[in-house]
Amino acid sequence: MPTRSPHEEPTGPSAPAIPSFESLRSTRGRSAVDLLVPGPASTEPPVPVAAPAGRPAPRPAEYGDLLRLGLRAVRAVAGVPGCVLQRLRAGTG
Question: N or C: more exposed end of the chain, with fewer CB within 10 A?
Fold first, then answer.
């Protein structure tokens, strides 16, 4: 079986040119999102909407919350094989 020498690498397609930061920052081109989403209807600044007075803002997740979420996920994933085995033993499924 013939092998290729490392000097005989096949030439593949050339890589595209990396865009400059200026072209990334310019606003002259429109993206796909600009075409799909209509522009602002008015030039006046939007009025900020205040949160309802009866409900406080949600608090950010803390380590304990994430730990409880992880434990629930592990229990759910660990319980799946047990459910599958029970169904196979019972003959349903």
Answer: N
How many Cα atoms are found within 13 Å in the side-chain-facing hemisphere of 28? 3
Gyration radius of the chain over CA positions: 29
Cβ atoms of 62 and 68 within 8 Å: the answer is no
Distances (CA, A) of 64 to 60, 70, 73: 11, 10, 14
Domain boundaries, the chain: 62-93
This prediction's pTM: 0.31
C-alpha 87 chain-centroid distance: 35
Per-residue pLDDT of the chain (93 residues; tens, 9 = 90+): 567 676 776 677 788 788 777 766 666 666 777 767 776 666 666 677 666 677 777 888 899 999 999 999 998 888 777 777 787 788 755
